[in-house]
UniProtKB/TrEMBL annotation:
InterPro entries: Kinesin-like_fam (IPR027640), Kinesin_motor_CS (IPR019821), Kinesin_motor_dom (IPR001752), Kinesin_motor_dom_sf (IPR036961), P-loop_NTPase (IPR027417)
One GO biological process term: microtubule-based movement
PANTHER family (UniProt xref): CENTROMERE PROTEIN E, KINESIN-LIKE PROTEIN
GO molecular function, one term: microtubule binding
Keyword Ribonucleoprotein: no
Similarity field: Belongs to the TRAFAC class myosin-kinesin ATPase superfamily. Kinesin family.
Gene3D superfamilies in the cross-refs: Kinesin motor domain
Organism this protein belongs to: Nyctibius bracteatus
Localization per record: Cell projection, Cilium; Cytoplasm, Cytoskeleton
Protein's recorded name: Kinesin-like protein
Binding residues for ATP: G65, P66, T67, G68, A69, G70, K71, T72
Record-annotated Kinesin motor domain positions: 1-309
Sorted UniProt keywords: ATP-binding, Cell projection, Cilium, Coiled coil, Cytoplasm, Cytoskeleton, Microtubule, Motor protein, Nucleotide-binding
SUPFAM superfamilies in the record: P-loop containing nucleoside triphosphate hydrolases (SSF52540)
Length: 313
């Protein structure tokens, strides 16, 4: 459960700087090394959330980290090694099948990207930019998004692969196919009891799976001009997410903390699932290369703070 981050530029014989070592130890709920399989990562991070979604809680899974550390691989995977998206939906459908005698259920999903603070529908790319609206109950909706209803995980895999090809990817110095946008897969499970006497009780559980854009520094990607602006937008939304995480983890402290969800589209969309009735998992990715020491350090500090979020479910 421990990650020890060694400083690559450190000289063991330098006595004067012995106390200023940047070596740090972080403790997490679970740490995987390079031998871990997709199955293992899924079993110990996401598997336990499915029961919650079916009983009407929300759940959110984040993949966070610098470009090239493997976020999209963890979430989407490849055809022979499917990632968290597909494994979760597979198990979700199996669990729902088991309850069909008493419950009618409907699963709808949408897949969108947030790029430069604009929302694109990845399943219907021609629809242009979409708006966030708040409905009468105060929940955030995306006007005009395509919702696909299905009970087949294979169909979904094809949709996601197709949608992922529509994602804004640009080569940077850090990675040839760097994702420049946050991809959000939103799955909504609605259940209704078949027995009429029970009253019309409807359970709604939302599952968000977010593949964030790379959190690296601009110096690392050597971006100029348009790419640089884009990076600023990415960092702004990640910063807004970080601010919300900070405010949530300090709640109940000495001062009442205001959580600013309106800073970016990403945090506004995830409002219910960060602070509210929800369980959240953050999968932080770091690269073992010594060139990305700074990135790894920032990533670990960010993820470590997320661990202190306390919500009242």
């Amino acid at each position: 459960q421990r990650v020890v981050l060694m400083d690559p530029s450190e000289d063991p014989d330098d006595i004067l700087r012995a106390n200023r070592s940047r070596e740090k130890t972080f403790v997490f709920d679970m740490v995987f090394d390079h031998k871990a399989t997709q199955e293992e990562v899924y079993m110990s991070t996401t598997k336990s959330l499915i029961g919650g979604v079916i009983s009407g809680y929300n759940a959110t899974i984040f993949a966070y980290g610098p470009t090239g550390a493997g976020k999209t691989y963890t979430m989407l995977g490849t055809d022979c090694e499917p990632g968290i998206y597909i494994r979760t939906l597979d198990d979700l459908f199996k669990a729902l099948e088991a309850t069909t005698e008493e419950m009618d259920y409907r699963v709808s999903m949408s897949y969108l990207e947030i790029y430069n603070e604009m929302i694109h529908d990845l399943l219907n790319p021609s629809s242009g930019f979409l708006d966030l609206r708040e409905d009468s109950r105060g929940s955030i909706q995306i006007a005009g998004i395509t919702e696909v209803s299905t009970t087949n995980a294979q169909e979904i895999m094809q949709l996601l692969m197709k949608g992922n090809k529509q994602r804004t990817q640009e080569p940077t110095a850090a990675n040839k196919t760097s994702s420049r946008s946050h991809a959000v897969l939103q799955v909504m499970v609605t259940q209704k009891s078949r027995r009429k006497a029970m009253g019309e009780e409807v359970r709604i559980g939302k599952l968000f799976m977010v593949d964030l854009a790379g959190s690296e520094r601009a110096a690392q990607t050597q971006n100029r001009g348009k790419r640089m602006k884009e990076g600023a937008h990415i960092n702004r939304s990640l910063l807004a997410l970080g601010n919300c995480i900070n405010a949530l983890s300090e709640k109940g402290g000495s001062r009442a903390q205001f959580v600013n969800f309106r800073d970016s589209k990403l945090t506004r969309l995830l409002k219910d699932s960060l602070g509210g009735n929800s369980r959240t998992v953050m999968i932080a990715h770091i690269s073992p290369a010594s060139t990305s020491f700074e990135e790894s350090r920032m990533t670990l500090i960010y993820a470590y703070r997320a661990k202190n979020i306390k919500t009242q479910v």
